Structures are given as C-alpha cells and as structure tokens.
Structure prediction request, 463 residues.
Amino acid sequence: MVKQQCEQSGTRPEAEQGDINTTPARHRYWERNLSGEARRWFEEDARHFLHQGLSTPVLNVIVKADGAWLEDLNGKRYLDMHGNGVHNAGFNHPEVVRAVKKQLDESMTFCPRRFTNIPAVRLAKKLAEITPGDLCRSLFCPGGTDAIEMALKLAKLVTGRFKTISFWDSFHGAGFGASSVGGEEHFHGGLGPLVPGAIHVEFPNYYRNPWGFTREEDVDAECLRQIELIMRREPEMAAVLGEPVSANPVVPSKRYWEGVKALCERYGALLIFDEIIEGFGRTGKMFASEHYLTPDILVLGKSLGGGIVPLAGIVTREKYNICQDRSIGHYTHEKNALSAAAALSEIEVIEKNNLCDHAAHLGARTLERLREMAGRHPLIGCVMGIGLHIGIDLVRDRKTKERAVREAEMIMFKCMEKGLACKTIEGNVITLRPALVITREEMDWALDILDGAIGEVERGLNY
Ligand SMILES: Cc1ncc(COP(=O)(O)O)c(C=O)c1O
Prediction:
C-alpha cells in the first residue's frame, strides 16, 4: 500500500535515503549473510516488529557492541562507521558502564518529577560549564525528537510567534513537530498536515546547489538572501533551526552562520542548533557551535546518554528561562538519575582522553586520504566533512553530478561483508562517523576496504 503510494507520488526512498529495506541488493545481502541462528532471530524480528523502511527487517543480528566495533551472532566483527551517533566515547565504555552500575547500586535510579537528584543537578551544571558562550539553563527528556520539540516550543513562547525556518533534506526526529521542521519526504508523506508554519530553505551546499554556483560566497549570499526574503514577508518567524554542519555533511562557512544569526537578530527570531549528532566531540570540538557562534538554544542527544541509556535535552540562555507558568517538556524521565550518571561519565571520558583533538587530527588525515582516493576514483565526486563526521558523494559523472545511488549501495554491502559497517544517506553519500576512540590503524584499515570496494564497483564487479 505504502509502496504503491510512494510510486504514485514519485517518491523514491532508495534515492532519498539509501540503505533501505526494499532493494534487490539488500535481499542479496540477507541471502548471503544470514544463516542458522542469525536467520532464525532475523525472522523472529521481522515477524514481531512493525516493518519500517529504515529499521525492520534489519541488516543482521548483533550480540555485542564495544569500543568502535560491533559483533554479530556468528562472531563476525564490524568496525561501525554509523553507530546511530550514540557512540562518541565508544560503545560500552568501561568507565561509563561502571558509572551506570554504581548508580544502580546506590538505588537512586528514577526520580519522580517533583523531586531532584544529585547526578541530574551535576549534569545540568556541567553542561552550563562546557557548552559555548552564556548557555546555562538545561531541560532533559528521553529522546532527540522530544528535545527538538522542546526547543521549538521555547522559541515560540519566547517570541510569541509560530513560524520556523529549517532546511530541506534535514532530519530532526520522527515526531510530528520534529518531522514538520525536518526536510525529508520520507518522514512527511502520507500524514496529512503537519505542524503549520514550518518553512524550508536550502542548506548552503557548495557541491550541490540548485543554482549551479561553485563559489562558496555565491552560495552563502543566495541562501541568506532567501532567508531574509522569507523573514521580511513572514513577520511571525519564531526561529531558524538547523544542524551547524548538515548530516551529509556539508560544512558551511562561518560567514554563513554569522549571516543567519544577524538576520535572526534583525527580525527577532531565535537561532536553534541541533547538535544531536555533532555534539560531544564529533566535529573536533566539544560542540560544533564552537566552529561558528553561540546559538540561542542548543539541542543535544544521542551520545549524551553514553551510548547506553536514552537521554537528550536543550541548553539555553538565562534570559529564556521564561516558562514558569507552563511546561514545555513534561517528561517522565526528565531528571533520570541513571541517564545523568551515564552522561557525566561520557563527558568525563571525552575530556580525559582528549577525544575532541583526536577527532580533529584523525579526521583531517582521513579527509586527506579520501581526497587522494578521489584523484584515482572517478566515482568520487566530492569528499566533505569536519572531524570524524565525513561524507563521500558518489557520482556517475563528475560533470552532471548524477547521484551514483546503486553504486553506493553496492559499495556499502561490499564493505559490510569485509567487516566495515558504513551507511549511505541521500542515496549516494557514504558517511563515515566512527566512534571517536577509533585508532589511526583502524581508520587506515577501513579506508583500504573502502578503496577496494569503490575500485571493484568501478571495474564492474557488482554486488
Ligand atoms: C540531527 C538529528 N536530530 C534529531 C534526531 C532525533 O533523535 P531521536 O532519534 O533520539 O529522537 C536525530 C536522530 O537520528 C538526528 O540525527
């Protein structure tokens, strides 16, 4: 039914998303890689979960996640380049596990809403210390979608307005509010009207933009011109919401975000940065905002919970502490002590092991190697990224930049079979977002596999 609707509407999830459950290559992967007990659990999973384009049926069954690695039921190990963004300190970091166990042993795990507890207070205090500028007031919730929606509600209450500007192709979560500001048809389609007032614009993509500009200044100027046009004509603008660096990942210039902030100030809107993926060292600084400027509201999630427990939240300025008569995030797990203990430990691990610097240095070296590979592989149209947040845009033709969707999928599955778990987005962009504890040797090994897989597909050795 949904498939039929997609076909009728012209939506092509495999091209928008990549890495989906319905392609022939995915079926081939299952046939080649699932047997015995793994197949039995895979089938049970598929029998009992609601099916979705991006999760069930799954790729494979894993039994362990530690450091930068996953292990499947047959004992095969995968260096994971995705980790859903929760694995900045590595999966199952022993210190985070110890902190969670200690908290359990202290019998202080859940905190009813009308009370507080010491780990939660310590976490809010720690975030006030480490987040950029004068951000100092936190509010927590279980997931990123909820945190995005708290940020939107806060901006609407602060400004007394309801419209928002966000970006096409972005993802901010699957809830109604979060998918309204998200820019992907995959999450909008078939639902009828979403939250009103959500206006979308182009992200300043220097490699792919609808105007064919090649100079960053021109892309920035046009993107800013469009935001200003909307702000002038839509005086009810509450906020601009975006990831400082997009998921593909396009890395905008400082000039661009400064321009957006100036427009927000001129037209009375707040700037919200979604750092659910990029926070906690991913881009080579503790927060991606530090490459640019301090937003009015910073949204955090994923790695905040240490990759063990779900936790997300917002951090904002003192002057936006204005909700005394309302509740914008009335979540049962608002001050969950176990989650707070995990988060404090995760932050300590990142700080103690200089994982931000490691991400910056290893990321720069990885980009250099990928650019060298681009010199040999015509399939590589562009290499983008910052820190350990890297994307490889694969094209059939460097002039037309036609997206090499099928090729990207074949490369992904070839890598998977060799023990490198990478993911595609937008159909043709292979993303590398490993745990920040990944070593230089592990990254070299991963790049060798990727290099080989790209070469094979270029030579017609299909998957
Ligand atoms: C940038 C971004 N924002 C928000 C979310 C939503 O987070 P959650 O899945 O915890 O609701 C995600 C999840 O992938 C994300 O990548």
